[in-house]
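**User:** Hello, beginner here. Are you able to go through the protein record under this note? It all follows right here:
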Amino acid sequence: MNKRDFPKVHFYDQDFVDIYDRTWSFIQDFLFNIKTEKGATESFFLYPDNNGWFLNQSETIFSSFFFVYSNRNYNANQGLDFFYAHQEESGAIRSKYNVETGEPVFSSDNPEGVGMPLFAWAEYNMFHKTANKKRVKDVMPVLTRYMKWLDTSFKQPNGLYTVPLAAVEMYNTPREKAAYLVDFNAAVAVNALYMSVLGDILNDKELSFQYKRVYFTLKTRINALMWNAETGFYHDIDADERQLPQKTIAGFWPLLAEIPNEDKAEQLSAHLLNPKTFGSDHPIPSLSLDDPAYNERGMGALGSVFPHLNFIVIKGLEKYERWELARECAIRHIYYVLDGLAPDGNSKKGALWEAYLPQKEGPAQWPGHENFPRKQYLFSAALSTITLMIENVIGLSISFPRKTVDWIIPNLEVMGIENLSLKRNLVTILSSKTQRGWEIHMESEKLYYFTINILGQKKKTLPIPSGKCSMLIDKL
């Protein structure tokens, strides 16, 4: 096995395997060699733009979540390092840069160029796939200055943050009256939460406590001002701190930040099963189905299903151990992505799209907007076809520094992963049905700890030695 190959997934539905494999091949088409302002030529993962070459903050952060599974064929942190290198003296990191000139790109609807602050979450995820503690130490000063800039520029006396609607990149979402956006404030809470955890990794108790305090203060304010007990949902609020009636997918962001208690999390989860709100055929629409502005054609953020927002919701469900609901949402979503890749069985006409229809097959529609949805928009779609495929459909949770692999599944199926590189360790985990019963075959170059969690049935942790081994589930 060449460590430069991509890990192989196994699943009983071969279409899921095919779309995973094809996504890795598609990515190669969006790697461009660009000469930067320093005169060096570097390879960047970019979506072509007629006006030049640009790096987008959200796209770069999200792409790191699938590049960590590339067996080091792609650099998960290169794009992030570009943003860090262009941090200003104030601590500002803008949401978009011209790669060739290094200049930030501003717009009239986002004059400060602020983006969704999720750098710390991305760094935490990369740490668990690389165990690179030195990187955490190197980036913490950058992330600390960035958080100070957010506080100085956008934090209000009530403890919440106010930014332009363009900062959350939900296009025409009907939230014009919102002064305090629930998704942005939840994203700041996510960043503070992981800043605290990164402080723990560095054994910096002062730093950890500092951001824990920021996190809990924000958590308290979001619960107090944005939660609505009648709707069982989090809402944006206006400048007078009055809740706005719209229920958008932004209301699920607090799950990722671990803001709701168990009761609130249960009510949020119920919306994903409610056909009158967010329980659409294709999960999860950007706007509640009972909203007057909802449109079944998607029409931008008036109902479209965005893979990167699905990713946020599904990762939020994991925080509350809603494993089965998270997996169900992921599988149903990928089936619709598959249909977009091969409409009417014709793969030549299909693509991976930026957004999809919420109640039937196909890409979202928005007449008059030629660039929506963007075709082969892998920054978002690959989160579904690669990351959700590994983490939620197959059900693997991997931490290299802990030397752990958790396999969380509702029931045994023919599936697994082959030759996943954990730094200098190749791991294979496959389940199959034999004459002796369900059997798990494993291969590893180094010792690690394997937890099999068949939900509601069995949970067992075992040390897996180097070499090949197998276990019968019935014997556990």
Observations:
- The CA atoms of residues 64 and 77 lie 7 Å apart.
- The mean pLDDT is 94.
- Residues 133-154 form the longest helix (22 residues).
